[in-house]
Amino acid sequence: MIPRGVRYALSGISWPLYALLYTPLALVAFYSFAPAPNQAGHSLHAYGVLLHDGAVFTALQRSLILAFGSAITSTALGTLLGYGLCRFRNANAKGVLAHIPSLIIYTPIIMPGLVFGISELIFFNFVHSATGFLGAGLQTMIIAHITFQVPYVALTVFARLAGLDPYLFDAANDLYADSFKSFFHLIIPVVEPAIIGGFLLGITLSIDDFTISFFTAGPGSVTLPIYIYSAIARKGISPEINALGTLMIGTIIIMALVHFFISRHRERGAQFSARGNVV
Fold first, then answer.
1. Which of 97, 109, 116, 233 is the least crowded, having the fewest Cβ atoms under 10 Å away?
2. pTM, two decimal places
3. Which domains can be identified in the chain, with CATH numbers?
4. What DSSP string runs through the chain?
């Protein structure tokens, strides 16, 4: 049992941190209900203006295309990369060679987004000037997002596979399973939570990203983060921007609640099945 003094100390640390985390979000929601022009009191005027702004929905559509397109591709590539790094690593390697898989995965993750975005911009400009392809636009943004999302998916899959008993692969071979069957009937079911987590993480990273999108975007490929930045740069923080932020916060909260209840339902189902098996 935790002593009372320790609990008071932890509470004294936790609540200020909670306030620091959630007070800005609460202020965004509060100022989104600003009064309409020449009126007093809170209103939904900002939400009405936002819903009639076609540029917002166009930016949102591009963000969703970018997020899901890059997340699907990066999940497939990251799963294969994580599997390859774990399955075919040399157990007898020492020194730098033993850490090559970790370097391959971690280097793009720890690289600053500014450096990554500038390098992608230079690369795409070089390719476009040499071949005429890959002009700045949605396609270059998708490629850039896939590039920085793949290591995150590979890391989750690699961590999942690294905890497996290596003799499982030998057991699958003894049961006459070739590489194709072993991958789809052994690896995929085992790493399914990691694949789903990597896919959701890819969507989150893509929608949240601004720096890499800013450097690889073209004139007609404005995403939601770029739109918000441009709107704030033009006219400052307006009630419409607060309303947009509130809608994004509300969407995240709803998704978190749905995930919580689904997970809770699965846990209860597993406990019920375990009790039935015991009986």
1. 233
2. 0.81
3. 54-240 (1.10.3720.10)
4. ---HHHHHHHHHHHHHHHHHHHHHHHHHHHHTTPPPTT--S--SHHHHHHHT-HHHHHHHHHHHHHHHHHHHHHHHHHHHHHHHHHHS--TT--TTGGGHHHHHHHHHHHS-HHHHHHHHHHHHHHHHHHHS---SSHHHHHHHHHHHHHHHHHHHHHHHHHTS-THHHHHHHHTT--HHHHIIIIIHHHHHHHHHHHHHHHHHHHHH--HHHHHH--TT---HHHHHHHHHHHH-S-HHHHHHHHHHHHHHHHHHHHHHHHHHHHHHHHHHHHHHHH-
pLDDT in tens, 8-30: 888 888 888 999 989 999 999 99
Q: What's the whole-number mean pLDDT along residues 233-262? A: 84
